[in-house]
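Need a sequence for this fold. Nothing fancy.
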């Protein structure tokens, strides 16, 4: 199903499970997850309120990846069980009519009841975008991370290859991480330059808390010459988070794709985020 096709207007029965693609700028949100004990603005609460306005009753959503404060979603996938009969068109257009400008639903499709946005996912893909120049960009704001020291993207790419495969990522794991295991499988990892943008592209079965930002921080330390080539392999062997580089800022991090079994027939995700639309196919 292509994303540019009209949204189906036929009502779906109450109780139908709906999957959606959500795009958001995380700059003004305290992450994805609702935090009812705190008076903070989150993407989940904002989305659920917009869907509740469409349904005229509460709607509870479940996401593929709980992004942190300031992290962006180009392809966040969520699901919910519709409490009332509505069409996919109503969920998308009605939801967007009630959402602020920095959150958007791109599609909604019915899925089997055994689909789960988080637990059915085969992999997740993130891009970390670095503006690498002597002056901080004025227009991109919180859309990219700025690094004034020159970065050797080819060196960073070579350095990153030691992280491929199933490994113990304790050295890139936040102290507050609640995962029962530090083992994760990185399936693809590349670093590319397009003009003044350096893009770290990483795909894994799942990620530890702050894993991508901690990897980005250490790769930038090598790419800027502050640490020697081969340092990341040493960090893996040590398994000590305190020996790695500082956590890179949230600004440049995007959840860009989530992979699911083909039987669910979810619409494909275009390359993104959109600020990379002029980049070469090799980068995307």
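Here you go.
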């Amino acid at each position: 199903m292509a994303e540019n096709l009209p949204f189906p207007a036929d009502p779906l029965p109450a109780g139908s499970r709906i999957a959606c693609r959500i795009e958001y700028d995380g700059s003004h949100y305290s992450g994805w997850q609702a935090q009812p004990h705190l008076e903070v603005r989150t993407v989940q609460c904002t989305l659920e309120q917009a869907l509740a306005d469409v349904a005229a009753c509460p709607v509870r959503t479940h996401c593929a990846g709980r992004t942190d404060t300031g992290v962006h979603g180009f392809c966040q996938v969520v699901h919910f069980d519709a409490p009332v009969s509505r069409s996919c068109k109503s969920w998308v257009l009605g939801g967007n009519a009630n959402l602020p400008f920095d959150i958007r639903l791109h599609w909604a499709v019915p899925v089997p009841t055994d689909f789960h946005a988080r637990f059915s996912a085969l992999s997740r893909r993130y891009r970390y975008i670095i503006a690498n120049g002597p002056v901080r960009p004025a227009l991109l704001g919180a859309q990219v991370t700025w690094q004034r020291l020159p970065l050797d993207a080819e060196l960073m790419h070579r350095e990153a290859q030691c992280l491929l495969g199933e490994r113990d990522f304790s050295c890139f794991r936040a102290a507050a991480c609640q995962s029962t295991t530090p083992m994760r499988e990185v399936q693809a990892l590349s670093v590319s330059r397009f003009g003044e943008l350096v893009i770290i592209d990483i795909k894994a079965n799942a990620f530890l808390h702050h894993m991508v930002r901690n990897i980005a921080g250490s790769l930038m330390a090598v790419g800027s010459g502050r640490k020697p080539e081969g340092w990341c392999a040493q960090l893996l062997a040590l398994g000590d988070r305190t020996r790695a580089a500082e956590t890179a800022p949230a600004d440049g991090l995007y959840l860009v794709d989530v992979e699911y079994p083909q039987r669910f027939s979810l619409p494909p995700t275009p390359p993104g985020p959109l600020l990379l639309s002029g980049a070469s196919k090799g980068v995307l």
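For context: The chain has five helices and ten strands.
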